[in-house]
Amino acid sequence: MTEAALVPKSAEGGDSALVVLDGVNKWFGDLHVLQNINLTISRGEVAVVIGPSGGGKSTFCRTINRLEPIDQGEIRLDGKPLPAEGKGLARLRADVGMVFQAFNLFAHKTVLQNVTLGPIKVRGKREQDASERAQQLLDRVGVADQAHKYPAQLSGGQQQRVAIARALAMEPKVMLFDEPTSALDPEMIKEVLDVMVDLAKGGMTMVVVTHEMGFARTAANRVLFMADGQIVEEATPNEFFTNPKSDRAKDFLGKILKH
Amino acid sequence: MSTLAEMWPFLRAGFTNTLVLLALSLVLSTILGTVLASMRVSPVLPLRAFGTSYVNIFRNTPLVVMFILIVEGFPPVDIRPNIEAIGLNTFETLAVFALTIYTAAFVCEALRSGVNTVDPGQAEAARAVGMTFTQTLSVIVLPQAFRAVIPPLASVYIALTKNTSVAAAFGVVEATAQLSRMNEQTVAGTGVLFFGIAAGYVVIVWVISGIAAFLERQVATAR
Q1: Which residues of A touch B220 (CB under 8 A)?
Q2: Domain map of chain B by residue range?
Q3: Looking at the partner chain, which of B125, B130, B222 has a beta carbon nearest the beta carbon of A106?
Q4: CB distance from A171 to chain B under 8 Å?
Q5: pLDDT one-digit tens code per residue, B72-90
Q6: Is B184 helix (H, G, I), strand (E, B) or coil?
Q7: In angstroms, rounded to a whole number, what is the distance separating the alpha carbons of residues B142 and B64?
Q8: Which residue from B minimizes the CA distance to A118?
């Protein structure tokens, strides 16, 4: 992927802004975890969020589908502000795919059921249609032969790919990845990142919290460097990795790129 | 042995009543307890507050006090005439009421302890997919809580079995009431009587434990 990819790939349909954070603030007790975040993520954009632990990356990611409520400001998805609770919020979440660090596959359901449950229960799809679509998605992420196993019978990498298929089954407008490879063995990281790179190339709008600098370089349109609850720096991957502006980013990159 | 054979009709009549009390209050308290547990884990504050208050009030009230209030009548809310009007046995219905209201608080807490054993990530994933609170609870959380709930719930039902004997003191002729009646009427065989009645309770409790053990094995192999 070249630098030209900074331009959103699929800017069809009027307004290109898909996710907008407007003056977002959040506190955990005295800790100001998100400090006046203003950000626009465009359709088709892949935004990678990196930064030191405890800097608010995960919290930021989780506010976008309101798994974490915010204290101040507004978040709009596709022009609509996030509802506070109830059915409206559930409907909105259906349009936002989420992939967790700990996979969080439904432990008492088979792989196939994990992928079909959302479409059936939330979208009201027929079971057969949902199953056919789920098989296609499982095939796409390379775990089609595991469809009838339970999550605990799969490797971490396989589970995370199922989790991606589960999110894709809802046909989301945007996908959130909260450290998707942090709980994986090194050899399994690649198989998950390959699926994510594939998604990015296919034009999916993605917000990815990660420590995988390789992924940020190859797939991101924009790097958001977060520390101490603020977005300290925003740049293209090339700019950010070769010529970071802030001292905080220089310090961070110095620590992680040494080995 | 002849004494036991002679007493059999009384024993049977008594235990039939015990089983009816048990079955009705077990089913009803499980339903009410599930509703209460859902309230206690719900995101809506007034529902949570109601569930918590219910448990605090009825779990802390002695069962006999509940019976006195409900069976003997609680003047401001005297519900007895209506029950007679629809042709139900007053004492038994009121006993089921008292047992249900009391036991539901314990069922609620057993279920809630089960819900707490389920990884919060499971509910988060369900919400992230777009499920409502009710769907998250009924499709994802409660089925997984079930395995952890079997042992404490079996204890609650066993306690309920023995609690049905409190109804004896309030005009319901169940097993324990038969014991005291026959104890007054017969000269000999008090010991035999006692063991007959005790054996009956043992059988009921044994069946409940057996079902619990069976269910535990079933869910253990289910994943």
Answers
A1: none
A2: 2-222
A3: B125
A4: no
A5: 766 555 555 565 555 555 6
A6: helix
A7: 32
A8: B129
Quote the CA–CA distance of B195 and B200 in Å, as a whole number. Answer: 8
Residue owning tokens 């100001």: A32
Using a CB–CB cutoff of 8 Å, tell me whether A121 touches chain B: yes
Give which of B47, B48, B129 to mutate to test A binding, by max A Cβ within 10 Å: B129
Rg for chain B, CA atoms, rounded: 20
Spell A108-126 as b/e; 16+ CB within 10 A means b.
Answer: bbbbbbbbbbbbbbbeebe
Pick the CATH number of B2-222 from 1.20.1530.20, 1.20.120.80, 2.40.50.140, 1.10.3720.10: 1.10.3720.10
Give me the interface pTM, i.e. the ipTM: 0.87
The token pair that represents A246 in the structure block: 């802030």
| B129/A93 CB distance under 8 A | yes
Retrieve residue B88's tokens: 């139900």
Query: Which pTM was predicted?
Result: 0.80
Evaluate whether A96 touches A77 at the Cβ level (below 8 Å): yes
Report how far apart, in Å, the C-alpha atoms of A97 and of each of A196, A219, B129, B144 are: 13, 18, 7, 23
* Nearest-neighbour CA in chain A from B121: distance (Å): 5
Chain A with chain B: Cβ pairs closer than 8 A:
68
Q: Which of residues 205-234 of A touch B (CB under 8 A)?
A: none
Give, for all 259 residues of chain A, the pLDDT tens digit. Answer: 444 444 444 444 456 889 999 999 999 988 999 999 999 999 999 999 999 888 899 999 999 989 998 999 999 998 888 887 778 888 889 999 999 999 999 999 999 999 999 999 999 999 999 999 999 999 999 999 999 999 999 999 999 999 999 999 999 999 999 999 999 988 899 999 999 999 999 999 999 999 999 999 989 999 999 999 999 999 999 999 999 999 999 999 888 876 5
Q: Does A27 touch chain B (CB under 8 A)?
A: no
For residue B31, which of B111, B86, B136 has the smallest C-alpha distance? B111
Residues in chain A: 259
